[in-house]
Structures are given as structure tokens and as C-alpha cells.
Amino acid sequence: MVKIKKRKLGEAQIPTSSMADIAFLLLLFFLVSTNIDVDTGIGLVLPEFVPPEEQEFVPLSKDRMAALLINENGDVLLDGNIIAIPQIKDNLKVRITEKIDLPSNRKLVVSVKTDRRTVYNLYLQSLDQVKGAYFEVWEEYAGAKYGKSVRDLTPEELEDVRAKIPIIISIAEPEKV
User: Fold this and answer.
1) pTM over the 0.85 mark
2) Phi-psi sector, 74: left (phi>0), alpha (psi -120 to 50), beta
3) Mapped to the 3 state alphabet, what secondary structure does 48-94 carry?
4) Taking Cα atoms as reference points, which of 92, 99, 88, 150 lies closest to residue 125?
5) Do residues 115 and 130 touch, judged by C-beta distance below 8 A?
6) What are the angstrom distances between the C-alpha of 13 and each of 6, 17, 22, 24?
7) What is d(CA 71, CA 117) in angstroms, rounded to the nearest whole number?
């Protein structure tokens, strides 16, 4: 009789040689397919740099300028009068509307000035109110002249509205305390 030897069976193993490849593919997939929300900041168009010796200073009359001052406590002054931030829009709308029919060199200039320790959120809220005043005047003007909203205007009509009511905001350097 022939004796048959029993072979020892090895333990079951999971192949892990391609595990790193799969992990990198998953990582790459999630990196490519994920939307990352990035704050864009304040949408301002800054003027080109002009050396101080080449700058031209044009004096502004008091009736042409709206001085908006914001201190560190959140107090807002519009032309020396204390107002709340939500009131900025309504006060400026009246002044912007008064100057619609004047030539472009007589339009309203809104000067925004803050204290160095002013809370950034108050500064942004104030700028939003100023721009909101201009946008509401644009809407009223477009409705009166063209009978439609600013969004529905043709590029030529929109350019006319922008020329008639230009947004002129002067942002002054914050003062040291």
C-alpha cells in the first residue's frame, strides 16, 4: 500500500499589491469631482497707479460729495449726520436722483472713510448700501426710460444707464487713531 502524504494548505490571503493604486485613484477622483467654494472678496475695480507727481487734483464742491464716515464703534456719519447703516441707501438715492440730468462732471461722489479699528463687516455693509442705492436708481431710471428692468436692457441701453448714473465711490485711506 502506498501512503499518500497530506499537503499542508497555506492560509488564505487577500492580494494587496494594487491597494495603493486604488487608493490614489479614489483620492484623485474626489479631488477632481469636488467643488471648493472660494470667497472672491469685494468686487471693486481699482484705478491704474499714477505716480503722485502726475496726479491731477480736482476740487469737489460740497453739494457734489457725500461723505460717509464709519468709526470703530459702528457709528455712521453721512455728511455729519448720525444715521443707521440701513438708512444709507435711502439717503443716497435722493441725492443720486437729483444729479441724473447734470453733466458727468457734476455727478455725486460718495466718499467712504473708516477708522483703522472699524469692524470689517460694518464697512462691507456700508459699501453694500451705497451700491444698492445706485442699483435702485438704475432700476427706476431704466423702468422710466425704457419700460424694463436693468437685467432686460440691451448692451446699448445699459451703457446709457451707466453713463447717465455713474457709480463714483471714493474709498479713503483709514485714519490712525
Assistant:
1) no
2) left
3) CCCCHHHCCCCCCCHHHEEEEEECCCCCEEECCEEECHHHHHHHHHH
4) 88
5) no
6) 21, 11, 18, 22
7) 8
Domain ranges (residues) in the chain: 60-171
What is the H or E stretch that residue 119 is in? Answer: none
Check if the beta carbon of residue 156 is closer than 8 Å to that of residue 145.
no
| Whether the Cβ atoms of residue 116 and residue 157 lie closer than 8 Å to each other | no
Residues whose CB is less than 8 angstroms from the CB of residue 130 and which lie 6 or more positions away in sequence, other chains included:
68, 88, 89, 92, 110, 112, 169
Return d(Cα 70, Cα 67) in angstroms, integer: 10
- Which triple of cell numbers denotes residue 61? 464742491
pLDDT per residue rounded down to tens, the chain (177 residues): 677 777 777 777 777 778 888 899 999 999 888 887 777 666 777 677 788 888 887 787 888 888 899 888 888 889 888 999 899 999 999 888 888 877 877 888 888 988 888 888 888 889 999 999 999 999 999 999 999 998 998 999 999 999 888 988 888 777 654
